[in-house]
Amino acid sequence: MGSKAGWQMLRAKHLARGVWEMNFPSSNQDLEYYISAVTSENQELRWPATAPSINQTVVVW
Fold first, then answer.
1. What is the number of H-type helices and E-type strands within the chain?
2. pTM of the model
3. How many separate domains does the chain show?
4. pLDDT per residue over 10-54, tens digit each?
5. Looking at the record's lineage, which domain of life comes first (predicted)?
């Protein structure tokens, strides 16, 4: 957590208007992620807005 080591890029699959699907690799460890997309005008969008400095966290227990 909090380290840039071990990051992977995963592609999302478009299912419908505004709906995308992605499968995270199976893990028994906590993880952090953020979503990045590029518009047709070449503008990068990120979620959460604080990414990549502060990301979304998933705690596995």
1. 0, 6
2. 0.76
3. 1
4. 999 999 998 999 998 888 888 899 999 999 999 999 999 999 999
5. Bacteria
Residues in the chain: 61
Residue 43 belongs to domain spanning: 13-58
Cβ atoms of residues 44 and 38 within 8 Å: yes
Nearest to 55 by CA among 36, 34, 35, 37: 34
Euclidean distance between CA atoms 55 and 34, whole angstroms: 6
Are 27 and 60 spatial neighbours (Cβ–Cβ below 8 Å)? yes
CA distance 31 to 22: 15
Instruction: Determine, yes or no, domain membership for 3.
Output: no
CB neighbour list of residue 60: distance below 8 Å, 6 or more residues apart: 27, 28, 29, 30, 31
